[in-house]
Amino acid sequence: MESAVKNAWLVIEALPEKLDLKISMMGQLDQHAPQDCILASNSSSYKSRLMLDKVDQKRRLRVCNMHYYMPPGNNVVELMTCGETDTDVLQFLKSKLEDAGMTPAIARKESTGFIFNRLWAAVKRETLLIMAEGVSEPKEIDKLFMTMFKDNPVGPCGMMDAVGLDTVAFIEDNYIQERHLDPTARDWLQKNFVEEGKLGAKSGKGGLYPPGETTKSSKDEGGHHDNLAAPRLYFLDIGMGSNITDMTKATISGKIMTASADGSNVRTLVSNQAMPDGIDVSISAGKLFWTNMGKSPSVNNGSIMSSNLDGSDLQTIIPEGKVHTPKQIKIDHENKKLYFCDREGLRVHRCDFDGGNHEVIIQTGDFNTADIEDQTKWCVGIAVDAKAGKLYWSQKGPSKGGQGQIFRANLQMADGDTASSRSDVELLFDKLPEPIDLEFENDSQTLYWTDRGEYPLGNTLNSAYVGPEDKEGGQVKTLARHFHEAIGLKIDAVNRHIYTTDLGGTVYRFNMDGSERKKIYETDGAYSGIALAHLH
């Protein structure tokens, strides 16, 4: 033994599960291994603290459990302290195991059975009890188990988050009452999560996982436990991509499309639209609303459209001639109002869901005059903060011109004001490359926008705090770059994600800080507006 371990940095004992043998072996290893050598036990049932009788006090900082699982093809290894193990030792071993292609996990405290064996013990115990009570038989149990968990992309924590932790607690409560089980786990869940509003994937506060990390893309298939929080996407193909071969029909080739949150199950809901640009969705009304810029932006022939969520019952709610070149559209869900910008029309409009009570609330010029040539007056993106009664909009400026602006005003005009002479308009940001679509996130009081301007500040996703306290000094943060004419923007407040589109034909998803950039869908289309809805 002495020669075998004299130069070792790690020794793992794997003797039969007899404690006296392990105590003796650990004592011998302590005598013969180098002072800085780590001594680990592969035991699955004994805590390494029980093997320390003959181990020097100094060595105990380098003693731990290091349990490999069977069969050998299983690459899971669990690490656990002996009660005195230096935490750096466990992190060091975790790193080395990862380098070797293993999947290590560190038990946060001493636990008989570590992590997985405790989980497996509960499965075994309940399986045996089901048979003991005559509820089912082995073949049926195994068939159900293998069917339910075959290719399942999440574990029990992700599955509970997807179902909803309030639902989990309710089910556990029923089991506790009927079967007289220990309520400790239910009580812990209720106190630390349910009462804090951390209900899982359906909650912006997250659950067992942090906000957004539970989201798994819906496959629109039965049997998936991770579908519940994934939104349905709705986005627009403006009709100008390379997928359009007959350019004489380009201006009437726009499409309203829908897809699962991973970009699968894509289908067209509505076709033959006149350059659709902005879209939003109302679940309560069961409606999609979108803007059509019209066959020619220089002509006053835009329109506002609606349909059911499946694309049926197509309606024109604001006809051609009543809006010039409508762009982004936003719903005020509380007041059941539509807000939309009118680029060459130099206006911001508001109306009811059926097009009634149509009014102009912002007017930057007269499109029947030379004003229409001044692109600094062109209104494009829009966001609504109904809670604070505020409206945000962008005026993009000339293409790649660096004259873009973002403004704010009240939803309701003051007495004596008109759409063209409002006293409450605030200029928030100036000299932007070319700001396009906007989104307002209420909890953080943050405004987000896409910009299709010139590099390096253009073709970006940006954000800035716009709340009542000037705590960031109006600082603009660039969250993501290198789009191909960035346009559409939508925040998934449930899962804390940002979705964007560009005219290069790509739908992207990001975390709220711009990290974890992912292409959800990419074709040779040209995508403008995007919306989403949680249909479950």
From TrEMBL:
<protein>
    <recommendedName>
        <fullName>3-hydroxyacyl-CoA dehydrogenase C-terminal domain-containing protein</fullName>
    </recommendedName>
</protein>
<dbReference type="Pfam" id="PF02737">
    <property type="entry name" value="3HCDH_N"/>
</dbReference>
<dbReference type="InterPro" id="IPR006176">
    <property type="entry name" value="3-OHacyl-CoA_DH_NAD-bd"/>
</dbReference>
<feature type="domain" description="3-hydroxyacyl-CoA dehydrogenase C-terminal">
    <location>
        <begin position="113"/>
        <end position="207"/>
    </location>
</feature>
<dbReference type="InterPro" id="IPR006108">
    <property type="entry name" value="3HC_DH_C"/>
</dbReference>
<dbReference type="InterPro" id="IPR013328">
    <property type="entry name" value="6PGD_dom2"/>
</dbReference>
<dbReference type="InterPro" id="IPR008927">
    <property type="entry name" value="6-PGluconate_DH-like_C_sf"/>
</dbReference>
<dbReference type="GO" id="GO:0016616">
    <property type="term" value="F:oxidoreductase activity, acting on the CH-OH group of donors, NAD or NADP as acceptor"/>
</dbReference>
<dbReference type="InterPro" id="IPR000033">
    <property type="entry name" value="LDLR_classB_rpt"/>
</dbReference>
<dbReference type="Pfam" id="PF00725">
    <property type="entry name" value="3HCDH"/>
</dbReference>
<feature type="region of interest" description="Disordered">
    <location>
        <begin position="202"/>
        <end position="224"/>
    </location>
</feature>
<keyword id="KW-0560">Oxidoreductase</keyword>
<feature type="domain" description="3-hydroxyacyl-CoA dehydrogenase NAD binding">
    <location>
        <begin position="2"/>
        <end position="107"/>
    </location>
</feature>
<dbReference type="GO" id="GO:0006631">
    <property type="term" value="P:fatty acid metabolic process"/>
</dbReference>
<dbReference type="GO" id="GO:0070403">
    <property type="term" value="F:NAD+ binding"/>
</dbReference>
<dbReference type="InterPro" id="IPR036291">
    <property type="entry name" value="NAD(P)-bd_dom_sf"/>
</dbReference>
<dbReference type="InterPro" id="IPR011042">
    <property type="entry name" value="6-blade_b-propeller_TolB-like"/>
</dbReference>
